[in-house]
Amino acid sequence: MRKVMLLASLVFATDLSILAGGTQQATQQSVPKVTVGSALKEKANSPAPPATAKNKAQKTSIGKGKVSMKTSQPSSFWVEQLDVDDDGTVENSDFLYDAQRGVLYTYREDDFTCRNGKPESGSILEAVYAKGNKAGKPVGSGWYVVGLNAGQCGAKQSGALGCKFDAGGNPTGCGVADVNYATGELDVAVAQ
Fold this sequence. Notes:
- With 192 residues, the protein is α+β, with helices and mostly antiparallel strands.
- Helices cover 18% and strands 45% of the residues.
- Strands 1-2-3-4-5-6-7-8-9 form a nine-stranded antiparallel beta sheet.
- It is globular, with a radius of gyration of 18 Å.
């Protein structure tokens, strides 16, 4: 009986991995490209609002829906004009600095590029690790998540897709994404 249960578990797990593999390949095609700009990475060295910042306050969240982050305590919030994606255009972006975790979050409605090169627009949340971050990550590394509507970038249904990136802004893992409010991290079902 025990061997039968073990075999059934193995078959079930194998079936799940085959299903996940097929989904991951489709997902990889859908994950948008978001450029992590040099000005944004530079802010990780000094994550504070400039004198020109607007709407300075203490808040516990940033973003909307699946493209949002919540902090465990009130954190510095501001709105700043900054070219966050090195496209030559200054974007009006929300910023939230979680000093306890050492993570700078930024949210905006902006353009991004699909893997097939098609431009799209939507919600983007980025997290950049600052100096002294609790996770021990390299300064300037982090993650981003994009909210997609069905049909955008070939997505079959609405959802959140994103990538983790290194200090150079290079993707290290992309796929279906879920913001983990407890850790401040992005959980990614990495597409192969």
